[in-house]
Amino acid sequence: MKKILAIATIIFLTLACLDATAKPNGNLTGKITDKETGEPIIGATIRLQGTSIGQFTNREGIFSLKSIPSGKYTLIISSVGYESQKVDVYMLSEDITIEVEMRPKTLISSEIVVTANKKVQTVQEVPISLSIVKGNIFREKSISKLDNALKYVPGVEVNNDNVSIRGSSGFAFGLGSRAIMLLDGFPMLSGDNGDIKSDAIPFPLIDQIEIIKGAGSALYGASALGGVINLITKEPTEKAYFTASSQFGLYTQPKYKSWQFSDGLQATRGANFGYSQRFAKVGISLAGSYISDDGYRFYNEENRFMLYGKSSIAITELSSLSLSGLAAVSNRDDWVYWNSLDSATRPPTNTDLDNKITASKYSINAEYKQIISANDFMIIKTNLFATQFENKLKGDEYRQSDAKTYNTEVQYNTKLHQYFNLTAGANYAYNQVEARTYGKREQNTLSLYSQIESPLGDLIFTYGGRFDLEQTKSIQKSLAGGRLEFSPKLGMAYRTKFNSTIRTSIGKGFRPASIAERFASLAFQGFEVVPNIKLKHERSVSFEVGWNQPVKIDDVPLIIDASIYNNELFNMIEPKFVQGTKPSIQFLNTTRARITGMEFNIKTMISSGFGMEYGISAMLPKDLDSNTTLKYRSAISLLARYFYKIGDFEIYSDYRFKSKPEKVDDELKLQIKNHDARVAVHLLDAGIKYKNKSFAPIELSIYASNLLDYYYTEVPGNLGRTRTIFFSVSYLLD
Amino acid sequence: MSRLATVLLFAFIVAIFSACQEGLDPSAAQKAVIYGTVRFENEFPPDSLIKDIRVVAFKSYPPADIIGEVLSGEAIFSESLLPISGDTADYKINVESLPARFKYIAVARQYGTLFEWDAIGVYTDDYINFSPLEIYASKGIGYRADIKVDFNNRPPQPF
User: Fold this and answer.
1) Structural domain harbouring A30
2) Could you tell me the pLDDT band of residue A529, with boundaries at 50, 70 and 90?
3) Does A721 share its domain with A606?
4) Which is more confidently placed, A46 or A702?
5) Which residue of A281, A296, A349, A481 sits 20 to 30 Å from the alpha carbon of A542, by its own alpha carbon?
6) How far is A345 from chain B (nearest CA, A)?
7) What CATH number has the domain bearing residue A95?
8) Going from the N-terminus, what domains does chain B have, and what CATH number goes with each?
9) Residues of B with CB below 8 A from A258's CB?
10) How far apart are CA A514 and CA A516, in angstroms?
11) Using the beta-carbon criterion (under 8 Å), do A673 and B24 form an inter-chain contact?
12) What is the pLDDT of residues A360-403, one digit of tens each?
């Protein structure tokens, strides 16, 4: 830890010197207005493309970027409800003032993203498929966990805690995520299990979730084998953003008597708030939530608490520092699987009902941004993500783990030439685990990466790679020698004269085994998990070709996005049943797999306020060793969403379909009754909300999840959530 | 509304109707049951040689091995009979795929690893030759099959 701080201090001082030598020489001021009404647009985001220079418009719709060195720039201007715009400006020695009119959005387009290449871009400039989930999904659907939000993304499957992007993951008891999760660019995978902690997110302040589909290790390193999930929080603006919500949900009784376990209705209740505002040079963000959930099954209760805070300070015109922290604590019943299909809402009869899992997650993050010149900027990030859990059982079944992950990254962006924009960086990650379950372990990963983006007219080439050196050891003794990975990437995005974009990319991903997969030695609900310290890295190579086209059919504007892809997976780490006195599981490098698929998405606004989105995904997930279908993958999935605004009311509905997974672990039948009970998934959600801003900044909504009470499983022995009706009241100031 | 919007809306409504199917149904797991009492005679082997005892119903006779037949769906089994207090233990096996003919029903003992099992009793009325009795299971019927385990007179091993 001391080493990390020392490195960070040296870099900080170096940057301070660089700041002193920079020679800014022009101011750019502008006013942003609504094209139809002429009203100023408050809180619009202004960014200089390829730099980290940016600002929000004030109450008069005015922005002012100071001390900009001479040169040609592209301004990207975006605001909720408006079509994003690009404006070219030439900075000379004198100040420049511009006026920009923005069109109200009639069709979802030109979304701004930051994850694909670690800088601000429009979606059309990105050479890889990327989905965006807007932050209001948490309020609209009464969601407070990340996994539930990701279920509404085409090409993403969620099996309990396992997030699978384009079939990259099956079900591995939540261990070893094949997608890296980031919060504002800070890694948030646990140091022991290498898993996503879905409840450790400041959901009331999430602006958008960006999901990169395909291997992303060339920029993000370990765990970005199947993709990258980056949660972006709202940036504070001069105008206060404040939301406070209270939800109450009821699980309706299952229609089958043998599944009814209580006389009354089970309930879920919660409250949350989010606040952000900028005061001169200081931005403040705060969020908190409390959830108490009885669960729709017996012995499935959960209580959760989350608190988040962030402060960002503009040190000078060209440098800023932000500090943030998050704490999430939960206490829940240790539900693992059902007693049997005819008592699917109860745990096995021998379950100790006094057992609870207590878990906590903490993160502390710091980021320093320094603009060095018109063409150069640098970002230093350092963070700690700590997780802790334990159950209340005694003897062999007692489980406990404390894990800390320290991460420090230095990123440097520079424009070497008109055709060469360089993004390069170094990253050091250190995992420290002290667990009864896994022992005392350490894992170090040192990485260097570099990527060049070459804009050649309407064509943008991206190419680069990353070296990662990973080593895992016990406290005294090295157990696994250093393993070096090189992850290259090559991509291209081409804007045609028909306003369409063609993209293609190929890239490599890798994931070292988590400490849990290597060292787990535990008894778990009748299973015994045995260690395997010889696990190798798993690897993937992703290739895709995509096409994005805005069109008009029958005067209805549409955006069509289609892609085909092929993912080759090597040495996949999977839980396997091995010989032992009980059903024993060991993680092994067993599978060579190939996943070939396609995605097709349509978005349209049929008329003002009436819109729809469709996403269809089909894939062939093949286990090449056994020439069978990969387990826990649905070959076909469909998402359909409708929304209709009538006056102060908005009606919205989502339909999700997943075909029946062809295969699950047959060995589970030794422990889980009716392990094979599974069907295709058909889920309909619908809601209505009322908001009349002129009366009061209050939103009332009723939302039904699984409205038709369809019964299904996503993993063996686990009935999916039954019908739940949520009522919520939100105070919104935005 | 445009033709395109009509088509998409129609597709959505069709999808909603398909969601009206009810999905999983607990009755699928309650179709037939084989149940009974296992009676133990003479002295039990030491505890170290009894890791588990279950009743297993096989569709084929002679079966190849217990774990393989279970994993391939050719055999189904009861919950563990352990711990056994006294000389008897009751068991129940739910039969989900019907109709089904079970040609060999045995009391199986795990004496080592998960893969090490032997037969210590057979559902039979012939405790000299141990010729197995069959059960043909049909929907909604419970079949009683009591089994005697004599540790001094073990059945021949079919595995």
Assistant:
1) 2-102
2) confident
3) yes
4) A702
5) A481
6) 11
7) 2.60.40.10
8) 25-150 (2.60.40.1120)
9) 26
10) 5
11) no
12) 999 999 999 998 877 788 999 999 999 999 998 887 778 899 99
Number of domains in chain A: 2
Same domain, A292 and A323: yes
Residue A726 lies inside a defined structural domain of this protein: yes
Strand partners, A101: A33
Q: What is the pLDDT of residue A478?
A: 52
Q: What is the pLDDT of residues A452-501, one digit of tens each?
A: 999 898 899 999 999 999 988 764 455 555 688 999 999 999 989 888 99
Average pLDDT estimate for A348-361: 93
> Tokens 């200081």 identify what position?
A282
Q: Do B114 and A256 touch (CB under 8 A)?
A: no
Residue A107 lies in a domain: no
If asked whether residues A93 and A172 sit together in one domain, one would say no
Q: What's the pLDDT score for residue A488? A: 95
Residues of A in contact with B110 (CB under 8 A): 581
Rounded (10°) CA dihedral A521, B77, A627, A517: -10
pLDDT tens digits, A681-728: 999 999 999 998 788 899 999 999 999 999 999 899 999 999 999 999
CATH number of the domain at A659, please.
Answer: 2.40.170.20
Domain C-terminal end among A63, A84, A102 = A102
Q: At which of A67, A102, A137 does a domain end? A: A102
Query: A21 and A168 share a domain?
Result: no
**How much is the average pLDDT of B20-43?**
82
In which region does residue A479 sit, left (phi positive, over 0), alpha (psi from -120 to 50) or beta (all else)?
A: alpha
Cβ contacts of A669 on chain B, cutoff 8 Å: 70-71
Nearest to A705 by CA among A654, A660, A667, A666: A654
Sheet with A96-102, strands from edge to edge, namely: A62-65, A28-34, A96-102
